[in-house]
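=== How it folds ===
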Amino acid sequence: MNWSRRGPAVLSRRPQRSRLWLHRRRSSCRCRRTPRPCRPRLEAAVSDAYFDYDKSDIRDDARTTLAKDAAALRSILADFPNAVIVLEGHCDDRGSAEYNLGMGELGAASASAYLEGLGVETGRLQRISHGKEKPVCTESSEACWQKNRRVHFAAGASGAN
């Protein structure tokens, strides 16, 4: 074997760097951003808003929830200037997939419009509908379906438009 002058013991103590680590050390790397920096704070401070069956209007309890969420969202967006918040519209499993995707989008749009009225910068809010694809509860009861008809707030990709 051809070892260096210092011998094999010194070579084995040298820290190994991964290719990804070396790639991220370059100043030209665009993936250096910390993904979703506001996620823990968002999960702790913001609650889901719930909707009635076959409706996208904001209920009284959802208005109260969204008013509390608006204050938290303004604070989060001020503290994290590159953060993007995703409003995910969800529905229960009744109805077709296309119908539920549409209802989820309408629910997310209603919540976004209400938050805009409360002073939240909607340019950094994105809307997406999951329809009935990501249920919280899978039982076939009214209580379970109610838990699934909601707008959930999630952290989006930092720096995205």
User: Anything to note?
Assistant: DSSP finds six helices and four strands in the chain.
